[in-house]
Every structure is written in C-alpha cells, then in structure tokens.
Amino acid sequence: GAGVSQSPSNKVTEKGKDVELRCDPISGHTALYWYRQSLGQGLEFLIYFQGNSAPDKSGLPSDRFSAERTGGSVSTLTIQRTQQEDSAVYLCASSQYNSPLHFGNGTRLTVT
Amino acid sequence: QKEVEQNSGPLSVPEGAIASLNCTYSDRGSQSFFWYRQYSGKSPELIMFIYSNGDKEDGRFTAQLNKASQYVSLLIRDSQPSDSATYLCAVKGDQGGKLIFGQGTELSVKP
Predict the structure, then answer these.
(1) Do B97 and A48 count as a contact with CB atoms less than 8 A apart?
(2) Which of A93, A86, A45, A89 has the alpha carbon at shortest distance from A69?
(3) Nearest CB to A42: which of B34, B45, B88?
(4) pLDDT, tens digit, 9 for 90 and up, residues B52-78
C-alpha cells in the first residue's frame, strides 16, 4: 500500500521567507510525528499528533515553527521567517497507536 | 542528561563478527523500545522493537532490554558490509507518548 508521502522533496528558500511542508500519512494511522535531522545528527523531535488529542508541541524550537493536522490526516509544518539554521531534512512519520513508526522520504530544506 | 543516549561511534567490526550497539534512557516509565537503521541520505527503517525485559531475536538481530538498568542493546551476528549504516535507538514513554531518538551509532563493517 501507499506509504507516508512528503512534499516537496526539496525546498530552497531565501532567509526570511515562510515555508510550508506537507505530510500525507498512511491511511488509518492515528499518530503523526515531525522530526528534524541536521547533517550528521540524530532525529530531533518537533511535534506529535495522536488522534483527537492536543498535540505535543514540546519539541518546536521557536514560535516561528507551527504545525497542524487537518481531519486527522494530512499535516502541514510551517516555518515563518526562515533562518539559515533551519536548513535540515524534515521527516514525517505515522503509526497506529503505540506501534512502530513508518517514515516518509523527508523534505530537504535549504535556507540561503 | 539526554533522554536517550548512544555512543556516536564509529563502531568498526570485521565481516562475520558480532556488532554490539548500546543505548541508555532516562525515563523509568518508558515502555516501548525500537531500533532503526538509517543509510546515508535515506529515511530510518525499523529493524526491531521490544517491550519486555529479556532478549528478542529476529534472524541475525537480537534486541536486549533491561528496564532496571534502563538499558537496551542490539546485537548483529555475522555482520555484513551491507549492515554498514547508522543505528538509531528510540524510546517511547508510557501512555503512548512521543518517541524520542538517540543520536545514533555509526557502524562500519569491513570486508
């Protein structure tokens, strides 16, 4: 079946611009995660959605970052006023409740 | 103290040897433990998960969990060059909370 789909796969933007990253989870998966991975680093937790519960936003690095999940399915991660340190691969993953995560291929963001 | 800690490596083993990868975690309430493999430029892929104390074997891979010591490990028997990758330990707290990853251990298997 279809896996987790992320778009765009690559995004180059100028410092100060806003960007939106999209994630389509596997159908029926109630949990959705966003992680950030800088070059040579591990996965940095950003935000976690589980069903209709309030999202866990404890990993968002600043108020320039926000995310929403509409209808319990598609999620959008928005970064406002991008900075060069925002350059990284942004990974989305989904799962059934308390089951292993399935990752998308990521969006590589480059801020120039 | 980081929530999930791994040695960054690189860990180098000869082909055919056993590779041992280790992970410690800080939250005593953690209930679910996962090992992911990540090849360079690719997304992480699940290798194994373990929920109970003891060993869990799947082919050449064995996951070991010791909740009293807050320690989880992954053994790879008969290591192959294709096993060369970064191995990520991930831990989830109780009540189905967020999944936290360690920094990963880079494994290099030399022919």
Answers:
(1) yes
(2) A93
(3) B88
(4) 999 999 999 999 999 999 999 999 999
